[in-house]
Amino acid sequence: MTEKLFYQDSHMSTFTAKVESCMPLKEGYQIVLDRTAFFPEGGGQGADTGMISSVRVLDVQEKDGIIFHFTDAPLKMGQEVEGSIDWEKRFSKMQQHTGEHIVSGIVHSRFGYNNVGFHLGEENVTLDFNGVLTTEELREVEYAANEAVAANVDVLVSYPDDKELETLKYRSKIEIEGQTRIVTIPGYDVCACCAPHVRRTGEIGIIKLVQMQKYKGGVRIAMKCGFRALEDYNKKETTVKALSALLSAKEEELTDFVERLKEEIFELKGKILGLNQKIFQSKVEKLEDGCDKVIFFEDTDAVGMRNLMNLALEKKGKMCAVFSGKDGEYKYVIGSKEKDVRQIANNLNEMFQGRGGGKPDMVQGSLKGTKEQIEKMWDKL
């Protein structure tokens, strides 16, 4: 059995130990120490990383009470070593995990929903609840969670026996075998958990619920705590200031400004559509009657290309191809009322490193070539 120093002191970042075994693997080595402050993966929290003397710890796992350190180099059996965990990462995980306890406890006590899923990722923490929250309720939970941080209450750890557990009301997402470890945040949460946490809630820093979406009949909430929340705020602040400068609008007026901008763009798109339709009419009128048509149009979107093709088919010919772009790369739409145009598209794709497809009466895609090359190939086809 490995002595678990992370349970004796969650803030222990360095320690000494003795190497009990070192086994080579396909990639790296598996090392067992007599004692460790490295937390193994568990309880929704990833493993610690760091150093044991001169070797890098890449992963940590536990099986049957023994903790295995997976490293990039070997150590000698019996060797006295010094371990050091990546403290910044560990502390961040403790901030996130303790924050999750507070949020889950508040949701459970106020709305009766259970946390049925938890993942502590490198960017976000996600919490899955088996009930739906409104946006207003989410903000209520967030405010209450930050009140818990401001209260700076102790985070308590206990190991109740079976008799005590019978009368103790606590949350647990899984069936627990062996000794139950209870993490209590007075007034907010009581939960079975194997992970290390901060000593007091004030260490968590701000708790920010950044996203909520419907998930399996309930909701999935993404959250950030402490320095992650600060980093998120800084990124968003940078984005807002950059947009404010680009649009010459005050930060607090950005939403209204963008709404007006959307309306203007919508109106301009309508005008462009009308002008394009006139240009399309003019192009089609200049085409000869009856023959298969190929039309080059320097700049239009997929909708415009289809409109031009349909107009040409209606007015002039049995088949029409519209190419939009410049020499080097063109998008295309080919349509016909009578012929299966898929083989023509396949031939073009083969000749011009193209890709695309569709139905017998219409295909679309893109290819690489010049106007002269495409026109010559079209005539052959």
The whole-angstrom Rg is 32 Å
Biggest sheet: strands, sense, closure? 6 strands, antiparallel, barrel
Oligomeric form of this entry?
single chain
Number of helices: 9
Low-confidence stretches: none
Average the pLDDT over all residues and give the rounded result.
Answer: 90
Helix content: 25-40%
Order of helices and strands: EHEEEEEEEHEEHEHEEEEHHEHEEHEEH
Protein structure class: alpha+beta
- In total, the number of strands is 20
Separation of the first and last Cα atoms: 77 Å
Overall shape: elongated
Mind sketching the topology for me?
Layout: E1 3-4, H1 5-8, E2 14-24, E3 29-33, E4 35-36, E5 50-52, E6 55-63, E7 66-71, E8 80-85, H2 87-111, E9 115-120, E10 125-129, H3 135-151, E11 156-158, H4 162-167, E12 182-185, E13 189-192, E14 207-215, E15 218-225, H5 226-247, H6 254-285, E16 293-297, H7 302-315, E17 319-326, E18 329-336, H8 342-351, E19 355-359, E20 362-367, H9 371-380
Parallel strand pairs: 1-4, 16-17
Antiparallel strand pairs: 2-3, 2-8, 3-7, 5-6, 5-8, 6-7, 9-10, 10-15, 11-12, 12-13, 14-15, 17-18, 18-20, 19-20
Helix pairs in contact: 2-3, 6-7
Detailed description of the structure:
The mean pLDDT is 90. It is built from nine helices and 20 strands. The chain has helices at 5-8, 87-111, 135-151, 162-167, 226-247, 254-285, 302-315, 342-351, 371-380; strands at 3-4, 14-24, 29-33, 35-36, 50-52, 55-63, 66-71, 80-85, 115-120, 125-129, 156-158, 182-185, 189-192, 207-215, 218-225, 293-297, 319-326, 329-336, 355-359, 362-367. Helix 2 crosses helix 3 and helix 6 packs parallel to helix 7 (302-315). Strands 2-3-7-6-5-8 form a six-stranded antiparallel barrel. A five-stranded mixed β-sheet has the order 16-17-18-20-19, sandwiched between helices.
